[in-house]
Amino acid sequence: MFHVKINNKSHEVPKGTTILQACRHAGIKIPTLCYLEGVHAEGSCGVCVVEVKGSRTLQRSCITAVAEGMEIQTNTEAVRKARKINTELLLANHPTDCLVCDKNEYCTLRQLSSDLGIKNVSFERTHAERADKDETSPSLVRDPEKCILCRRCIAVCAEKQSVSAIGMTGRGAASAVSTFGDMGLGNAECANCGQCILVCPTGALMEKSEIDGVWKAINDPKKTVVVQTAPAVRVAIGEDFGLEPGTAWTGKMVAALRRLGFDKVFDTDFTADLTIMEEGTELITRLKTGGTLPMITSCSPGWIKFAEHFFPGVLAHLSTCKSPQQMFGAVAKTYYAEKLGVDPRDMVVVSIMPCVAKKFEARRPEMNGAFHYWQKKMGLKDSESFQDVDFVLSTREAAKMIKEAGLDFPALPNEEFDQPLGMSTGAAVIFGATGGVMEAALRTAYEVVTGKALASLDFKAVRGMDGIKTAEVDLAGTKLKVAVAHTLSNARKLLEEIRDGKSPYHFIEVMTCEGGCIGGGGQPFTTNLETRKKRASAIYKEDAGLPLRKSHDNPVVQTLYKEFLEKPLGEKSHHLLHTHYTKRGVHPGDVAHEKKEHKAHAHTH
């Protein structure tokens, strides 16, 4: 422990602690912009400066370690002046459209300016011409005009996700954050995860909004507009209305969506149960027939695109199941449309997801199973093709629509999902947290294989925030070894084991984002480790309180098979609920990844 003084008060701090960490531990808030705890610290913004006795210049607290006997001042005139100057320099090169900026109330730069008491920008506007908006991605929009070069997006993409789709280009005044060759995110190896959006302190990175299209569909009397909501949305949406994280706002969310004008409000959890029926059966079949193992879950679209880019040699290990979002669209526009007597071309399926990669997934050309179903029955032309899911809204976009409609979210009554596609079990609810898909699959696989009821439905070994979790389950004599990974950097470790022929596992769950869907790139900007933990707790609490907690016990899923699908992995479910993957490859400019893929191809051949 080191003994230091902070603002003339003595403190003990561990060796290796930075000044920033020491001050926060002492209850002193030091402003930051470029700093990202546990991921990125380089002091480029200069707003975290402090005075250290004996130092000739102010010190950047995020990168300066404390030393024995150090005396630190955080609130001197020189410190305040430096922080203001550094912030004003950023403002002199930043747009002034705060009132209409998408990041408005959550902009760290705007909040910092307010906290520092900045009333005027003392410097002549230095704004230089920058690149146009990058709108090549179906999931994200990158606006160089609003970028302050903090590099947080670069750090999270490289360190947390091991993707490095974006980086610094140019030098000096020409420095910019961009993709290789300025090709745009839609043409790069971007996973569309949106973690860069969550860490961006300004509006330089945002999801591509589909709100206008949804309003247009709702207001079209010819359209039947149904909405599905993912499990992670209900435990986060309240945060955008000032409510504390850690509570499931399911009933109020349903009431709000119904008042927005959706014809039916359904639950993606219904097709999460359906996914377990298909995926569990697929796993059991692979185990019995010597199929490709380990089998890896396929419900996280960012992870799928990551594998397609960086590990095309292991695509056979992926489950062929579509995600619950896409299964819902296929079932809604076939089974449910027939029940209603609605022309599927007049049905609009809207998803509310914690994940901006779902926007990309919905537009994948192979996600049109319902069209092919009706093409055979109605003789539709190829030119009449439609997607299973029409629009995808993030949790944030859904909250914006609720605010736009003037609804008082906290005051709304609790209402139930519509039926039949609103029936679900606790196994489906936990899909929203890392380990949840694995736990749901094990609940069903164990009982299907052994014919016995589980003594406890809680597989706690696969819960929690550890990057990689492992467990072993006895399935009637077969020791099933499983692993769970969240973030793509952790997924990479498991994929490298598979590629090198060293994987000991039979079944692997991968979630793109930290914490799973609860930490998705479309979640409220309040997302951090603490809120992720609270959201996960709310999800497990909802699961524990439900009367049905195993996917195979869902009576509506059972009816769906009896009336329509016939059986898991049957011919109809094969066409509607399963998919294939694309070998995409890494752009040749990405040397580090290119070398890794070269080794992978050499091993495969």
Shape: globular
* Total number of helices: 21
**Strand content bin:** 5-15%
Tell me the number of structural domains.
3
Secondary-structure-derived class: alpha/beta
Q: Whole-Å distance between the termini?
A: 54 Å
CATH architecture of the largest domain: 3-Layer(aba) Sandwich
Largest beta sheet: strand ordering: 2-1-5-3-4
Just give the CATH class of the largest domain.
Answer: Alpha Beta
* Largest sheet: number of strands, sense, barrel closure: 5 strands, mixed
Extended strand count:
17
Q: Mean pLDDT across all residues, rounded?
A: 94
Helix content: 25-40%
Uncertain segments: 589-605
Whole-number radius of gyration? 25 Å
Q: What is the fold-level CATH name, i.e. the topology of the largest domain?
A: Rossmann fold
A few lines on this structure:
The protein is α/β, with parallel strands linked by helices and 605 residues long.
Give the secondary structure arrangement, pairings included.
Layout: E1 2-6, E2 9-13, H1 19-25, E3 49-52, E4 59-60, E5 71-73, H2 77-91, H3 108-115, E6 140-142, H4 152-160, E7 167-169, E8 176-178, H5 195-199, E9 205-207, H6 211-218, E10 224-229, H7 231-234, H8 250-260, E11 264-267, H9 268-289, E12 295-296, H10 301-310, H11 324-340, E13 347-353, H12 357-362, H13 369-378, E14 391-394, H14 395-404, H15 426-429, H16 436-450, E15 468-475, E16 478-486, H17 488-499, E17 507-511, H18 529-544, H19 555-565, H20 571-577, H21 591-604
Parallel strand pairs: 1-5, 10-11, 10-13, 12-17, 13-14, 16-17
Antiparallel strand pairs: 1-2, 3-4, 3-5, 6-9, 7-8, 15-16
